Inverse folding.
């Protein structure tokens, strides 16, 4: 039996299909050999992708194969760092459906982003409690009287009623007035922007927009802002009720792309 076949062309003995080898056989194309399929149809098994190890995060230099339309469809790669994407980059989250006294996020603000977006909803166990937020730095909670804030509430049962809540020297950000304790109403649904928390030369800013259900079971539309008057680098944040507990909370934090 010949150990080498030399031929300028292989063709089926009959019909238009042929088979090379049998199941389990291995054929090796040596280094330096060019297998030119540029004008042919090449069908790959699905295991080319599904048979590989999955990754759960991407490094900047991870590569994606593309067909370059500006170069006759030639195959090239692009690195993850050059791909366009959304402006929000998920950082962390916390979900709880049992009674809890606070929700704490440590080291969620880093040098990766200048500004941040927080979205979530909270329910409370005791009508009349408010929701508060306090900042953290490398040493722990910032409890001094450096928090200033103001927010306005527009009630759904009135065309004219506007209520203001404000302070210039609290030890926390107050985010709501007294809330209802009915879980089904989801009494505080919010989005909060955090501006430049790591800066040590200017004050960190906060902007919130939210929907609340007040202690009289009336829906309010809320908009407000706050500042932390100190200039420490802020690395974390926690949310807590003025008394008792949260009954449910769902909170996600995102970094906003710098460009």
């Amino acid at each position: 039996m010949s150990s080498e076949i030399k031929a300028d062309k292989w063709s089926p003995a009959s019909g238009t299909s042929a088979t090379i080898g049998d199941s389990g056989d291995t054929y090796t194309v040596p280094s330096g050999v060019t297998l030119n399929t540029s004008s042919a149809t090449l069908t790959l098994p699905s295991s080319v992708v599904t048979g590989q190890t999955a990754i759960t995060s991407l490094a900047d230099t991870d590569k994606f194969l593309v067909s370059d339309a500006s170069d006759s469809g030639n195959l090239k790669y692009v690195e993850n760092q050059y791909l366009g994407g959304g402006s929000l980059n998920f950082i962390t989250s916390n979900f709880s459906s049992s009674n809890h006294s606070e929700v704490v996020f440590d080291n969620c603000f880093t040098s990766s982003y200048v500004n941040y977006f927080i979205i979530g909803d909270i329910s409370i166990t005791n009508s009349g409690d408010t929701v508060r937020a306090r900042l953290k730095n490398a040493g722990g909670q910032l409890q001094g009287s450096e928090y200033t804030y103001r927010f306005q509430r527009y009630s759904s049962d009135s065309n004219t009623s506007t209520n203001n809540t404000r302070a210039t020297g609290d030890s926390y950000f107050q985010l709501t007035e007294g809330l209802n304790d009915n879980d089904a109403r989801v009494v505080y649904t919010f989005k909060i922007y955090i501006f430049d928390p790591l800066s040590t030369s200017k004050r960190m800013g906060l902007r919130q927009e939210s929907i609340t259900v007040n202690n009289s079971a009336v829906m309010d539309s809320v908009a407000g802002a706050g500042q932390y008057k100190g200039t420490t680098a802020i690395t974390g944040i926690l949310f807590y009720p003025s008394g008792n507990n949260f009954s449910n909370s769902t909170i996600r934090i995102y970094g906003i792309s710098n460009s």
Q: What stands out?
A: The chain is about 0% helix and 40% strand. Helices lie at 47-50. The chain has a mean pLDDT of 92. The longest helix spans residues 47-50.
